[in-house]
């Protein structure tokens, strides 16, 4: 039976836009269905606005700290509304890249509406029944809700509202100690709010290297950011217009509450049972080819509930479109999945953590740690907090890396490239411009070479003998 489309893409976020745009460029007939607006969480509520606000907050912090360089700024004033205006202006500037007009110009049929599957081969939207060779679900995620007594009555915001408030909260309580909570917590603190972060785990950023997180802990303490670990918000009350949060033994008062405690996949309205698509606890279940339990239907991005990053959604989208348009032979790999948290210092990682590597490879691993304080550019910039930790096998194969420090999100790409091409750590010892922060990587590579040499006593003895003989001949 003939079908109208090669691909019907459901969801106009990062993953869906990549699939639709590239497929149309390959001359496939594509329909893109979105119920709200193109761009997804990244453009409107995530990466773009958060990094814009972080930039504004870093400027504020640098002005306040300028005295350490002999530069004094008397009583700097922060106009919070203008900082938010910078955020919105950035969104407005980038939005045309994700506009319906651009994708229609590429040959994509853009359909706005809230649709659902009616059977395993048909998606219905606006009373239209769309049939295609393949479907791609890329509907993303939303902030998870928490069953905290009094939370709904007291009122709260999530990352979907926080970038639209124009009045800085005097006190801000953040429920959740993950990347969103930490990034926004530091940003609001630097812009003048008194911030308390409530984290249920024994450290902030629990998916990161514990040593790296300790650097973040110390920085937050130095900036006056209060954070409670191993603590859950138990109930919330409103008294005389102020919100009181009961958390463990603490009673926290806040003008505003930001909930940043995980994400939930957007699947409820899709009628996936009719399509024969299974949904697990975290999100839609897929195989290594990103096929759902219905092999005609693929899924990518946050809706899977795994790595919830824009760059991962784009990577998965490229796998999906090849499998969906041609033959399903391409597989995803999570061996080289990087990410960064844009606190200051930044924290970036790729591959295995040290404990994971030890559990998998036992004694066949080496760990090299290079402090930022030993990098001359870090000294010159006054950004000496942090380190690069690189985990390898004995033969130098890179298993994972964890960077915490200035520009960590940029510096880790050299390691990502090495891992992607199966290069050993020694490959990073090549020439680097002096003085740059990138020397943290080359110094780490040299440190491992020195470490290997110091442990190879036979080689040392052999070289000592060779040089002794050579000296005899002058």
What order do the helices and strands come in, and which of them pair?
Layout: E1 5-10, H1 14-25, E2 30-34, H2 40-44, H3 47-64, H4 80-94, H5 100-105, E3 108-112, E4 116-119, E5 122-125, E6 128-137, E7 141-143, H6 151-154, E8 171-175, H7 179-190, E9 194-198, H8 210-222, E10 226-228, E11 233-239, E12 242-247, E13 250-254, E14 256-259, E15 263-265, H9 272-275, E16 297-299, H10 310-325, E17 338-341, E18 346-351, H11 354-361, E19 365-371, H12 376-381, E20 387-393, E21 398-405, H13 408-420, H14 439-455, H15 457-472
Parallel strand pairs: 1-2, 1-6, 2-3, 6-16, 8-9, 8-14, 9-10
Antiparallel strand pairs: 4-5, 5-6, 7-15, 11-12, 12-13, 17-18, 18-21, 19-20, 20-21
Helix pairs in contact: 1-10, 3-4, 3-7
What's this, in brief?
With 474 residues, the chain is an alpha/beta fold.
Provide an overview of this structure.
The structure is a single chain. By secondary structure, this protein is of the alpha/beta class. The chain has helices at residues 14-25, 40-44, 47-64, 80-94, 100-105, 151-154, 179-190, 210-222, 272-275, 310-325, 354-361, 376-381, 408-420, 439-455, 457-472; strands spanning 5-10, 30-34, 108-112, 116-119, 122-125, 128-137, 141-143, 171-175, 194-198, 226-228, 233-239, 242-247, 250-254, 256-259, 263-265, 297-299, 338-341, 346-351, 365-371, 387-393, 398-405. Strands 1, 2, 3, 4, 5, 6 and 16 form a seven-stranded mixed beta sheet that branches. Strand 20 and strand 21 form a beta hairpin. The protein starts with a strand and ends with a helix.
Mean pLDDT level:
95
Q: Compute the gyration radius: what is it? A: 26 Å
Work out the helicity level. Answer: 25-40%
Provide the structure class: alpha/beta
**First-residue to last-residue Cα separation:** 87 Å
Uncertain ranges: none
Q: Note the beta-strand portion.
A: 15-25%
Number of strands: 21
Instruction: Tally the helices.
Output: 15
- Largest sheet: number of strands, sense, barrel closure: 7 strands, mixed
The backbone outline, from C-alpha atoms, is: globular
């Amino acid at each position: 039976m003939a079908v109208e489309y090669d691909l019907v893409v459901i969801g106009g976020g990062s993953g869906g836009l990549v699939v639709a745009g590239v497929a149309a460029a390959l001359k496939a007939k594509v329909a893109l269905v979105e119920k709200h607006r193109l761009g997804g969480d990244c453009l409107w509520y995530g990466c773009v606005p958060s990094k814009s606000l972080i930039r504004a907050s870093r400027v504020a912090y640098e002005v306040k700290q300028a005295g350490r360089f002999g530069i004094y700024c008397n009583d700097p004033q922060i106009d919070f509304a203008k900082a938010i205006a910078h955020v919105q202006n950035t969104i407005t500037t980038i939005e045309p890249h994700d506009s319906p007009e651009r994708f229609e110009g590429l040959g994509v049929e853009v359909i706005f509406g809230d649709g659902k599957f009616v059977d395993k081969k048909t998606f219905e939207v606006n009373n239209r029944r769309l049939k295609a060779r393949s479907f791609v679900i890329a509907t993303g995620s939303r902030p998870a809700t928490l069953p905290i007594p009094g939370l709904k009555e007291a009122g709260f915001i999530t990352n979907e509202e926080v970038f639209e408030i124009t009045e800085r909260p005097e006190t801000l309580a953040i429920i959740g100690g993950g990347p969103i909570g930490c990034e926004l917590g530091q940003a609001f603190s630097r812009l003048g709010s008194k911030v308390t972060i409530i984290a249920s785990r024994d450290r902030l950023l629990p998916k990161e290297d514990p040593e790296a997180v300790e650097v973040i802990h110390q920085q937050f303490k130095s900036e006056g950011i209060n954070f409670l670990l191993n603590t859950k918000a138990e109930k919330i009350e409103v008294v005389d217009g102020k919100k009181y949060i009961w958390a463990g033994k603490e009673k926290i008062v806040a003008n505003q509450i930001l909930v940043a405690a995980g994400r939930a996949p957007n699947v409820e309205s899709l009628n996936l049972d009719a399509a024969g698509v299974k949904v697990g606890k975290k999100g839609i279940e897929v195989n290594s080819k990103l096929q759902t339990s219905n092999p005609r239907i693929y899924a990518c991005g946050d809706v899977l509930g795994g790595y919830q990053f824009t760059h991962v959604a784009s990577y998965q989208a490229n796998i999906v479109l090849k499998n969906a348009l041609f033959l399903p032979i391409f597989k995803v790999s999570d061996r080289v999945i990087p990410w960064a948290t844009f606190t200051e210092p930044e924290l970036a990682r790729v591959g295995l953590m040290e404990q994971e590597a030890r559990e998998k490879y036992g004694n066949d691993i080496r760990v090299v740690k290079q402090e930022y304080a030993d990098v001359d550019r870090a000294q010159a910039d006054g950004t000496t907090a942090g380190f690069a930790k690189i985990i390898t096998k004995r033969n130098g194969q890179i298993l994972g890396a964890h960077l915490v420090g200035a520009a960590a999100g940029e510096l880790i790409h050299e390691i990502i490239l090495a891992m992607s091409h199966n290069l050993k750590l020694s490959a990073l010892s090549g020439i680097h411009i002096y003085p740059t922060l990138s020397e943290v990587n080359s110094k780490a590579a040299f440190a491992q070479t020195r470490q290997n040499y110091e442990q190879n006593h036979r080689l040392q003895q052999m070289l000592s003998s060779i040089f002794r003989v050579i000296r005899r001949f002058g």
